[in-house]
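Hi everyone, sorry if this is the wrong subforum. Our group has a chain we'd like a structural model of before ordering constructs, and none of us has done structure prediction before. Sequence below.
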Amino acid sequence: MKIGAMDYVLGKPWTELFDEAARLQFDGVELDLRPETYLETEIWSDSGRRDLRERSQRTGVEIASVCMDGVAGLMTKPDTHEDGVHALADLRRYCDELGAGVILFPMIKQADQSEEEVFTMWRNGFRAAFDLSLDARAKVGMESVGRKGRSADQALAVIEALGSPALGVYYDVGNADYQGFDPIAEIDKLGNHIFQIHVKEIGAEMGEGKLDFPAIFSAIKRVGYDGYLMLETEPGEDAAGNAARNRAFVKKML
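Answer:
Right subforum, don't worry. Here is the predicted structure as tokens:
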């Protein structure tokens, strides 16, 4: 397994992110997109992707994944549904250029939507995006977000409805516990549908809260997961120090 960090965890802009990640001995990073500015990021331009690849190759730090953040919410709004579909299709191709294997797709539901409505939008949206990017290799991992999240069973229902090997789960052990789910049982249930994993504990430093990380890591190994363990921890006032400490904790668990 490899250890990475989301960009904000390291407290650096993308122009400095890879050097900082290399200095702290991370294997890779996750780039985060915002709905207001995603079209203006380096990912959405040929020259920008070239610059990102150069930084990655120069430092030896992989671009492991890209988080769609609020951009994913475009798909669940009728007036922006097509924008969300095209954003996901384009991003799959861009991730291939960057060497990023996974796209984090937060399962964002509008407040006034029924389960049936949002399920239909996800199913149709994923299918359309995959049809528009048939040659792309980047996989899409759904992440349960928010205070009231989505269970492993709900994620598996979407996966079954699509029947595509490109759709799976980006599992977040901290979110699962915060939402009242059992991360160990869910990891066992999801198995090889897990494409990537966020490691954190909400409201506490890893190893200092209530999460049983030794048991969680045992479950991760038990299902044969061998991908990235991506820090989504708080940077605090000392981003580098906190990131280094959390990396060391994860390394110890391995």
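For your construct planning: Residues 7 and 242 are 14 Å apart (CA to CA). Strands lie at 2-6, 28-32, 62-67, 102-106, 139-143, 167-172, 194-199, 228-231.
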